[in-house]
Amino acid sequence: MEKVGFGGGCHWCTEALFSHLRGVSKVEQGWISSTLKEAESFSEAVIVYFDDTIVPLEVLVEVHLLTHSATSQHKMREKYRSAIYTFNEKQTKATEAIMIEKQKLFTKPLVTKIYPFKAFKLNDEKFLNYYEKNKEKPFCKTYIAPKLKMLMEKYGAIMMND
Fold first, then answer.
1. pLDDT digits (tens, 9 = 90+) for 126-142
2. What's the predicted TM-score (pTM) here?
3. Are 44 and 121 a contacting pair, CB within 8 Å?
4. CATH number of the domain that 106 lies in?
5. What is the span of the domain harbouring residue 22?
């Protein structure tokens, strides 16, 4: 089992999206930081545990980039850092190559950065699996459900049904 960290938008959204992919065994939702000074503060993120033979890192990175504002340098980037947190040098190199390839999917430059992982703080229990517990709430219907629908259309073969 491998793991990788993703930060971008709301960690409730990110958790829900990756939790619906086959090959993902666990998604931890909370705050993550890097060893690099520019990303040493904690920001909303998830750690995704996955089987690379079922869902490769390349697909996870693409899902991440397509489901948050990966080309927008907005004022909330400290809280919602657009990032991929890697756990070893091999994963860093692979992610760098994937990012070069995935830039072709976008007309604007990606702002997503690759950072070495430092630390993670799990969110409060009441917020974990937020989408699964609150599917009917306006936030979930407005922000998460449309992203899941898009993923089902694009990645139906690797999506788990509700």
1. 999 999 999 999 999 99
2. 0.94
3. no
4. 3.30.1060.10
5. 2-158
